[in-house]
Write a structure and sequence with these properties.
Length: 257
């Protein structure tokens, strides 16, 4: 059994479900001690119970600067160090440029973009001396326009640009922290499942976000497929990868949805 992250401590936000849960499980399988944060206390506790002694749950509002300070301090106190930060927590609110409200736009930016800024900044500070890796979960919508998710796409574009800027900052200043982003397409998670309310009878989850007429073999990614890329970026196998935008989209770049 591979244990590429043996002895390391990884913090995963939004770890109670979806990509965060799959990532926490994958990191633990590779030997890492995993700290899961979320507002969903019941879900977070369930994941830590599943993972046993390798996991710890902390309640966190990722949009709160104070919560970030508190969580990082708690991880350092209880685990002794931080080696990996996965900024995964996020929300999905539909709406095009006409229907999206300002309040919805601001909420998307606060949860999806502000939180990644706070987490990246906290990660760089915590790992500045020892070194480490930060992985920010973005989306194909950071570069592919999706009419019905204008605000979501904009928030993920901010994540992509912040990742590049942070990676460059670390490289230029000799800080041994790598910062990369992962860009999945429609991943089958509880969050995206909510978008299927009112879907026509017979709709298959594999066709989430795909036009089945022009792309009949398109399929949604599974959380485990994204998690495996996160593990790679967190490990020494990716020690020369910094500022990269990893697409986990089954070829959407060349084909579209």
């Amino acid at each position: 059994m591979s244990e590429r992250l043996q002895g390391r401590v990884a913090l995963v936000t939004g770890g109670a479900s979806g990509i965060g849960k799959a990532t926490a499980e994958a990191l633990a399988r590779e030997g890492a001690r995993v700290v899961i944060t979320d507002l969903n206390e019941a879900g977070g506790a369930a994941v830590t119970t599943e993972l046993g002694g390798q996991a710890l749950f902390l309640r966190q509002d990722v949009t709160s600067e104070q919560d970030w300070d508190t969580v990082i301090a708690a991880v350092q106190e209880r685990c002794g160090r931080v080696d990996v930060v996965v900024n995964n927590a996020g929300i999905l609110i539909p709406g095009n440029v006409e229907t999206l409200t300002l309040a919805q736009w601001q909420k998307l930016m606060r949860v999806n973009a502000d939180s990644v800024f706070l987490g990246t900044r906290a990660g760089v500070k915590a790992m500045k001396e020892r070194g480490g890796a930060i992985v920010n979960i973005a989306s194909i919508s950071s570069w592919l326009p999706v009419d019905g998710y204008a605000g979501y796409g904009a928030s993920k574009a901010a994540v992509a640009q912040l990742t590049r800027a942070a990676a460059l900052h670390c490289r230029k200043n000799g800080i041994p922290v790598r910062v990369n982003s992962v860009h999945p397409d429609g991943v089958w998670t509880p969050m995206t499942e909510e978008t299927l309310r009112g879907a026509p009878p017979g709709f298959k989850k594999e066709h989430l976000l795909y036009d089945v007429r022009s792309n009949p073999k398109g399929r949604a990614c599974m959380p485990s497929e994204v998690a495996s890329v996160v593990v790679f970026l967190a490990s020494d196998d990716a020690k020369a990868i910094n500022g990269a935008e990893m697409h986990v989209d089954n070829g959407v770049l060349g084909m579209g949805l």
